[in-house]
Write a structure and sequence with these properties.
By secondary structure, the chain is mainly alpha-helical. It is built from ten helices and no strands.
């Protein structure tokens, strides 16, 4: 009975959130655009969305490996739930829901799983920067004459982001070196904070650092980075096909 009640509450909450998202949407206009869209391109765009989830789940498995074996099915379901939640909830709440959902189906800490999500974002940043650099170097003659100031701004922004991403990986490498020592260090905060709060911060920090274990396994990190390339190429393909689907054949 309790499980049925919980299911009803979740469904009601999902319906309410969906209604909130669609409140100011012109549904007739959306339906009209879909009817007149090119279904070949639209189908490709939808398929890339599924492919994105598959690659994300597969990549996540590699980053989760230091925490223990994780089934692809659970990783895929958690990824789908997380990105669905991000679509209707503010502040990318799905990034928090995803590791929590996975932790309920796998024997691991949600905090440690959340650390892998942060690591994913850093790998995504590096991948996007690599693709941006490739685009800038290959298409520079076409880009530079149009707006020199914007072109230079893009280069400087990309450079700063690259340094930030590499710096984040270096910090993660240090934190993952000895999670237990990190927890012991933070436990000393009980000298200035309540012991319960200091203990909580120490445990959270230790679990978070444990989740960054993939940084110290170059093979795993390299595979995750390689998987990020087809992931973002698939994302770009999905955006492009969605954009051209409303054109006349």
């Amino acid at each position: 009975m309790r499980s049925h009640l919980r299911t009803l509450i979740v469904l009601a909450l999902a319906a309410a959130l969906l209604g909130l998202v669609l409140y100011n949407v012109d549904l007739r206009g959306v339906a009209r655009e879909i009817v007149h869209a090119r279904f070949d391109w639209l189908t490709v765009s939808l398929l890339t969305m599924f492919l994105n989830l598959v690659i994300r789940a597969w990549r996540w498995q590699y980053l989760l490996e230091p925490l223990g074996p994780t089934s692809f099915g659970n990783a895929f379901r958690a990824t789908a739930v997380g990105f669905a939640a991000t679509s209707v909830l503010p502040a990318r709440a799905g990034e928090v829901i995803r590791p929590y959902f996975l932790a309920r189906h796998e024997r691991m800490s949600a905090t440690s799983a959340f650390a892998t999500v942060i690591l994913e974002r850093v790998l995504d940043m590096l991948t996007v920067l690599v693709l941006l650099a490739a685009y800038v170097f290959f298409f520079r003659p076409e880009l530079e004459p149009t707006n020199v100031v914007a072109f230079e701004a893009v280069k400087w922004t990309g450079g700063i982001a690259a340094v930030s991403a590499i710096g984040a990986l270096a910090v993660f490498f240090v934190l993952a070196g000895n999670p237990a020592r990190l927890g012991q260090t933070l436990s000393r905060l009980e000298q200035v904070l309540p012991s319960s709060l200091a203990g909580l911060l120490a445990r959270v920090a230790e679990k978070f650092a444990t989740g960054l274990g993939a940084v110290r396994r170059p093979g795993r990190l390299f595979v995750a980075l390689i998987l990020s390339l087809p992931l973002w190429l698939s994302i770009a393909l999905g955006i492009w096909t969605a954009a051209v689907s409303d054109r006349e054949p």
